[in-house]
Specification:
The N terminus and C terminus are likely disordered. The chain is of the alpha+beta class. Helix 8 runs antiparallel to helix 10, helix 8 packs antiparallel against helix 13 and helix 11 crosses helix 12. Strands 36-40-41-39-38-37 form a six-stranded mixed beta sheet, with helices on both faces. It has a five-stranded antiparallel beta sheet with strand order 30-35-32-33-31, covered by helices on one side. The two termini are 44 Å apart. The chain folds into five domains: 154 residues, Bulb-type lectin domain (Agglutinin, subunit A), CATH 2.90.10; 133 residues, Agglutinin, subunit A (Orthogonal Prism), CATH 2.90.10; 144 residues, no CATH class; 99 residues, 2-Layer Sandwich (Phosphorylase Kinase, domain 1), CATH 3.30.200; 237 residues, Transferase(Phosphotransferase), domain 1. It is built from 14 helices and 47 strands. Keywords: ATP-binding, Disulfide bond, EGF-like domain, Glycoprotein, Kinase, Membrane, Nucleotide-binding, Receptor, Serine/threonine-protein kinase, Signal, Transferase, Transmembrane, Transmembrane helix. GO terms for molecular function: ATP binding; protein serine kinase activity; protein serine/threonine kinase activity.
């Protein structure tokens, strides 16, 4: 029986249902085609099959596909005629040879299952059934076990639970999952995920079918070495990841214990393979997995003349002198189309002699871009100097850029794989000279001197006429500016939360030109009153709150005062998207800037300890001292700001939803940042203040080490369970390493090397102990923030925390049911009634992405 074939009994039941409910289109059979807006719906109503028109597709382009039937966002998971769109007058029917086929309006076959039906007694008796797994199955009505064809064997861009991406060892055929060509075009794109054709137990991401740009690493029997978050399941985990390798085939498959879980694994048009969960409360897809994590590692991910900047919120930008070829696609995050020139090159005019009558037309010029990773398809040219190299490029109309580092390299036509922000000592880094039309560069002259003369005369005539008007306007504006400044200065200081006009904040921020940061809720700009009082203005984006609700919540939050909470000075709510918040300005920026970006100032241990204590006090105030408990929902270094004396201020707490003290209620919106999210966000448990405690604990590890949690760890060897006895190096997840070192009494080795061991050992022990308790899987075992404050102040102490068992399982090392007591080295049995292999419900990526 083919993989994933439908059991005989179930298939017969479906056929019976189809006969009784023929009008509901349960099956496609001879004489019962599918056309127009008709749909084939799976028995449980989870999936639907029919004609659809993708968003952004050309008019009149229709495709036969499978999508989620009960989800509000139309999300295709399989497409039949990927490369051949049809009109909406087409029909899906059983062809005379027994295959399922798509017929266009003229009756020609556009797509067919092309299955062998020679063994079927009556080919016209075959039927097609859509299962609740999302698998479309073709089989004889008289013999359900003889599956002739199924969509799970022909995955397009989406890998659903129960499907398998396989390598047929007998034929050598490899099943690939190919991205869409563009957001509105389901034709196979440049990127694909497939099994390693060499036979190695790993999956590869390929560009154009040839270039490997990411690999999972070999399967150890428990996880992939290059993707440890994709691990085999353990009891009670809620998911099941399984790798199968036999004489016939090799494949990987996954399933979820809870049938209501909606998850899809997609080869995205961005070149990343992504995992998405559907969150019913927010009516949206939540991204929980993406590889490669380095967005710029994707070949041609930004298209022609697109520049990738790692860590940028937009991922891709056009090089200077260029604009997106399709602004609509760029707005949807599809950058493959790349960028086009604002002004065409002069080309042949660059080498024209004076006799051509265009001697006043300027040659193309070159923009020097430093810190650029040079494209890898440059051609070496014979040029002894940089000037010779430039002239060689100008002499060829197809030359787009050059670089000279003792040797001359030229690039022709479109430039791909440009990456900005590369250090000079990194491989392939250097200065790129990008060819642009002269008018695109500063100081460029007009192309025709006659136009300059005409413009000069016109300007001279009009100057006298408009001079008086300009003087009058300046006088009026100056008067208004002084009055506005005087009025705003009266609002700059005070305890009340001030309601500002949108035009006032435009004035303070110089029309939002000085951007100092950005986050999930919007961008932050620097503003300044005329008396030199500096503020930070946050321009909120994507809020769904109504005017009345927004003002009520902001007014409440404006009354909250604590030395470790950022002070809200005012707000603006002029309707629509004009919602802004005004805060105290923090001159030393956010904590992540000093921890991860290695500024010239290294935070001392004394400062770091005060930050941990201050943040704990701020969170304790939000949880316990406010009239209504406020759960921050996004505690991370980016949301901890430092004042002039490096005192910590918790920011963005005002954007978390206010909840009452009935902690049994579940928040209706998933919030936070991957890498800091508590397990209960994914598992569906109630969200309480202990979610902030978990995030705080994850942040403590980073304060100690000065690096993101996944970026460090000790190297160790793992022996494959597949009995091949090969050693595969992997990296220990840092929080797990801390828990082990704490039990061994060796926490000082975990300190940020930048501090050169200059730290208080007792304080280090306290911080590590608190962090390990904060990230426990069991919500009840995590301390409250008030308890954390007492421990950090040395007023109380905590017992030695157990090594977090679910982290052990995720990393791939078994837990032996032991913990360490703080006062002795004896091992204690794991608490009764609690599983040793306790894991996070299908949320492994939460602990590996930073």
């Amino acid at each position: 029986m083919a993989a994933g074939a439908l059991p005989l009994g179930a298939f017969v039941v479906l056929l019976c249902v189809g006969v009784v409910r023929a009008a509901d289109a349960d099956i496609v059979a001879a004489g019962r085609p599918l056309s127009g807006d008709q749909k084939l719906v799976s028995p449980g109503g989870k999936f639907a099959l029919g004609l659809f028109h993708p968003d952004g597709a050309a008019d009149g382009s229709w495709y036969v596909g499978i999508w989620y039937h009960k989800i509000s966002v139309h999300t295709p998971v399989w497409v039949a005629n990927r490369e051949t769109p049809v009109s909406n007058t087409s029909r899906l029917a059983i062809a005379p040879d027994g295959n399922l086929a798509l017929f266009d309006g003229a009756g020609s076959i556009v797509w067919s299952t092309n299955a062998s039906t020679s063994g079927v007694a009556n080919a016209s008796d075959t039927v097609a059934v859509l299962l609740d797994s999302g698998n479309l199955v073709l089989a004889p009505a008289s013999n359900a076990s003889a599956v002739l064809w199924q969509s799970f064997d022909h995955i397009t861009d989406t890998w659903l639970p129960g499907g398998k991406l396989r390598r047929d060892k007998r034929t050598g055929a490899i099943q690939a999952m190919a991205s869409w060509r563009a957001r509105g075009d389901p034709a196979p794109g440049m990127y694909a995920l497939q099994f390693d054709p060499s036979g190695a137990k790993q999956y590869l991401l390929l560009w154009n079918g040839t270039r490997v740009y990411w690999a999972t690493g070999n399967w150890t029997g428990k996880y992939f070495t290059g993707a440890p978050e994709v691990a085999a399941s353990s009891g009670g985990s809620g998911y099941s990841f399984n790798f199968v390798d036999n004489d016939d085939e090799s494949y990987f498959t996954y399933n979820f214990a809870v049938n209501s879980t909606v998850y899809r694994f997609v080869m995205d048009v961005s070149g990343q393979v992504k995992g998405w969960f559907w969150v019913e409360a927010t009516q949206g897809w939540n991204l929980v997995y993406a590889e490669p994590k380095a967005r710029c590692a994707v070949p041609r991910g930004c298209g022609a003349f697109g520049v990738c900047t790692e860590g940028s919120s937009t991922a891709c930008d056009c090089a200077r002198g260029f604009n997106p070829q399709s602004p609509t696609s760029w707005g949807l995050g599809d950058y493959i189309g790349g960028c086009v020139r604002n002004t065409q090159l002069q080309c042949s005019k660059n080498s024209s002699g004076p006799s051509d009558g265009l001697k006043n037309v300027e040659q193309d010029k070159f923009l020097r871009i430093d810190g650029m990773r040079l494209p890898d398809d440059g051609r070496m040219a014979g040029a002894a100097t940089s000037g010779d190299c430039q002239r060689a490029c100008l002499g060829n109309c197809t030359c787009s850029a050059y670089a000279y580092n003792g040797s001359c390299f030229l690039w022709h036509n479109d430039l791909f794989n440009l990456q900005n922000g590369v250090l000079d000592d990194q491989a392939g880094a250097g200065s790129l000279y990008l060819r642009l039309a002269a008018s695109e560069l500063p100081g460029a002259r007009s192309h025709v001197w006659r136009d300059i003369k005409v413009a000069t005369v016109a300007l001279g005539v009009t100057c006298f006429v408009i001079a008086a008007a300009i003087l009058l306007v300046c006088t009026i504006r100056g008067t208004m500016k002084r009055r506005r400044a005087t009025r705003l200065n009266g609002l700059a200081v005070g305890d009340a939360c001030v309601s500002y006009k949108y035009s006032d904040l435009q004035f303070l921020t110089k029309n939002f030109t000085d951007k100092i940061g950005a986050g999930a809720f919007g961008s932050v700009f620097k503003g300044q009153f005329s008396d030199n009082t500096v503020v930070a203005v946050k321009k909120l984006e994507g809020l769904r709150q109504g005017e009345k609700q927004f003002r009520a919540e902001v007014s409440t939050l404006g009354t909250i005062q604590h030395v470790n909470l950022i002070r809200m000075l005012g707000f603006c709510s002029d309707g629509g998207d004009r919602k802004l918040l005004v805060y105290d300005y923090m001159p030393n920026g956010s904590l992540d800037r000093h921890l991860f970006r290695k500024t010239f100032y290294v935070l001392s241990w004394q400062v770091r300890y005060q930050v941990t204590l201050g943040v704990a006090k701020g969170l304790a105030y939000l949880h316990d001292k406010c009239r209504d408990c406020i759960i921050h929902c996004d505690v991370k270094p980016e949301n901890i700001l430092l004042d002039a004396s490096f005192g910590p201020k918790v920011a963005d707490f005002g954007l978390a939803k206010l909840v009452g003290r009935d902690f049994s209620r579940v928040l209706t919106t998933m919030r936070g940042t991957v890498g800091y999210l508590a397990p209960e966000w994914i598992s569906g448990e109630a969200i309480t203040a202990k979610a902030d405690v978990f995030s705080y604990g994850m942040m403590l590890f980073e304060i100690v080490s000065g690096r993101r949690n996944i970026e460090q760890g000790e190297r160790r060897s793992v022996v494959s369970a597949a009995a091949d006895a090969e050693e595969h190096p992997t990296t220990t997840f840092f929080p797990l390493l801390v828990a082990r070192k704490l039990a061994e009494g060796d926490v000082m080795t975990l300190l940020d090397p930048e501090l050169e061991g200059d730290a208080n050992a007792e304080e280090m022990r306290r911080v590590c102990k608190v962090a390990c308790w904060c990230i426990q899987r069991d919500v009840d075992t995590r301390p409250a923030m008030g308890e954390v404050v007492q421990v950090l102040e040395g007023l109380t102490d905590l017992e030695m925390p157990p090594v977090p068992q679910y982290l052990e399982v995720l990393i791939g090392r078994p837990v032996h049911g032991t913990a360490y007591h703080s006062d002795s080295a004896e091992q204690l049995e794991a608490p009764a009634g609690r599983p040793v292999h306790e894991t996070v419900y299908h949320s492994t990526e939460q602990f590996f992405r930073s």
